[in-house]
């Protein structure tokens, strides 16, 4: 419609003549602003907030933000305020950043019950700084799920621990390794009632044997009454069918246990390793009998080095150490297949540093010891494997052995956060919860079952990492994988999700999946949820 015809007044436009920029005159000068340098110690200028005037606020902010030790060190390097004594209790000589590190240490369950003397001893062992103690504690928390829900796929039997410390067990029970006071199999998760009132924070399972660790650092063991050879040979004088306190460890605050085929190892709160049995020929740095029940410290190169995680293979032990200059891995035991990572196949009777990680410029964060091969996840998310390569368990696309750690190139686009190893089998969990597996496909424990009838070629060996699509379909973020680490038992696998749901697949002939199988069925190819809430 025409605007004039409608009676609406027309808009009048006026031409504004162009004016050269040079003719525009600014009447008043634009004020310039002086750039002021703020100092941590303040000035006499009103409104200036000197950090030194109220350091308690700064300390609160540093602690509340949960800064990591590297960030605290950078603050010290960039500003003298964070380096000088803060005049605060409990140590008036400590700097603000050191106090913040100490405060964050005191939030950790391992650190809280320590006496002042024990804390100072740990501080000196870690390098003389509370920031280094914090680094040690955080590294340990990242390695294994202490005080969090966890599931252990042992040889023929399984252990599940809730976030509140309640323990369930199921599967084979010929040696009383389920802890229920009997030797009868359990096909469904059953709570270990005798542990009521005791909070369990970590578990380990070997053939016919189980070890549990409480939040007070006490160790309970049941099953075969021996710390030595698990499959054959010495089995102890009796079977223990309910959890019993390990008296020889009562004076050691234990945070982790690892069970190999010929030996058992525990890790103390201070980062010291103690081993039982398999001392003949000084295989673990000491001379003992196979049925020895006394713990012996693993010394040598680790005598003054704090360890944050241990992992036991069939006949060797790995130790992840935390030192001021970074993380490192040591190995000891049988070197067949190159699984000790030193470029040879010779045995090591004392712990020896694996030097290859320095050449790869990789900071190890998690270690895993399979029966015959090993794996590490680096801080940057790279995965390294080495040892026997049978069935493709190293993930390098072949079955060759590797005597030094080698990066799994097929995972170059994946940032890994967790790795688990078994008998020629490897699983990797990425930062987004995806799961990859490779190696021996026996017992359908790799999770690669794609046929509509659930059968398919799920027993095929996998030479390079493949996404476990069956776990992708559960629409849950996977945070932990556990798989059987024994050469004598058919393997099964657990996948634990962020919400506390547990999925199982693989061999289930003894009830170790926690799932009832139909007639003539001995395994499950696809993950199935176990009827248990681990939150």
From TrEMBL:
RCC repeats lie at residues 165-216, 217-270, 271-323, 327-380, 381-432, 433-499, 500-535. Keywords: Receptor, Repeat. SUPFAM superfamilies: RCC1/BLIP-II (SSF50985). InterPro entries: RCC1-like_dom, RCC1/BLIP-II, Reg_chr_condens, Ub_ligase/GEF_domain. Pfam families: RCC1_2, WD40_RLD. Residues 149-483 form the RCC1-like domain. The keyword Ion transport does not apply. This is Ultraviolet-B receptor UVR8. It comes from Prunus avium. The gene is LOC110760501.
């Amino acid at each position: 419609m025409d605007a004039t015809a409608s009676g609406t007044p027309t808009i009048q436009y006026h031409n504004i003549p162009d004016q050269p920029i040079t003719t525009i005159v600014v009447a008043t000068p634009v004020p310039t602003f002086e750039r002021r340098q703020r100092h941590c110690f303040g000035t006499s200028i009103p409104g200036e907030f000197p950090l030194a005037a109220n350091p308690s606020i700064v300390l609160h902010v540093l602690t509340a933000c949960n800064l990591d030790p590297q960030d605290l060190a950078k603050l010290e390097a960039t500003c003298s305020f964070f380096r000088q004594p803060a005049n605060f209790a409990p140590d008036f000589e400590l700097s603000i950043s050191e106090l913040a590190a100490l405060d964050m240490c005191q939030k950790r369950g391992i650190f809280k019950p320590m006496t002042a003397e024990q804390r100072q001893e740990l501080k000196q062992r870690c390098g003389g700084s509370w920031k280094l103690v914090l680094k040690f504690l955080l590294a340990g928390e990242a390695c294994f799920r202490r005080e969090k829900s966890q599931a252990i796929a042992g040889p023929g039997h399984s252990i599940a621990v809730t976030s509140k410390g309640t323990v369930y067990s199921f599967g084979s029970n010929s040696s009383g390794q389920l802890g229920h006071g009997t030797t009868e199999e359990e096909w469904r998760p059953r709570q270990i009632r005798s542990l009521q009132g005791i909070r369990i924070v970590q578990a380990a399972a070997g053939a016919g044997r189980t070890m549990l660790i409480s939040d007070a650092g006490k160790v309970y063991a049941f099953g075969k009454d021996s710390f030595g050879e698990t499959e054959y040979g010495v089995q102890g004088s009796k079977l223990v069918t309910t959890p019993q306190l390990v008296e020889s460890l009562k004076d050691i605050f234990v945070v982790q246990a690892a069970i190999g085929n010929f030996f058992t190892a525990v890790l103390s709160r201070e980062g010291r390793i103690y081993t039982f049995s398999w001392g003949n020929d000084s295989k673990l740095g000491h001379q003992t009998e196979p049925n020895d029940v006394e713990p012996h410290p693993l010394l040598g190169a680790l005598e003054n080095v704090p360890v944050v995680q241990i992992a036991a293979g069939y006949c060797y032990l790995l130790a992840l150490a935390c030192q001021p200059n970074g993380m490192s891995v040591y190995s000891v035991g049988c070197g067949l297949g190159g699984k000790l990572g030193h470029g040879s196949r010779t045995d090591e009777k004392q712990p020896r540093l694996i030097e290859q990680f320095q050449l790869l410029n990789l900071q190890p964060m998690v270690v895993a010891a399979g029966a015959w091969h090993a794996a590490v996840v680096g801080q940057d998310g790279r995965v390294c494997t080495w040892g026997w390569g049978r069935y493709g368990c190293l993930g390098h696309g072949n079955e060759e052995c590797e005597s030094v750690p080698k990066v799994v190139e097929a995972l170059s686009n994946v940032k890994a956060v967790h790795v688990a190893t078994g008998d020629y089998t490897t699983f990797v969990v990425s930062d987004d919860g995806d799961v990859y597996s490779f190696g021996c496909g026996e017992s359908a424990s790799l999770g690669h079952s794609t046929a509509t009838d659930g059968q398919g070629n799920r027993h095929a060996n996998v030479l390079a990492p493949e996404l476990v699509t069956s776990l992708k379909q559960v629409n849950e973020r996977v945070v932990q994988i556990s798989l059987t680490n024994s050469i004598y038992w058919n393997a099964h696998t657990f996948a634990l999700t962020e919400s506390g749901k547990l999925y199982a697949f693989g061999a289930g002939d003894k009830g170790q999946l926690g799932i009832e199988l139909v007639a003539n069925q001995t395994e499950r190819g696809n993950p199935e949820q176990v009827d248990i809430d681990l939150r």
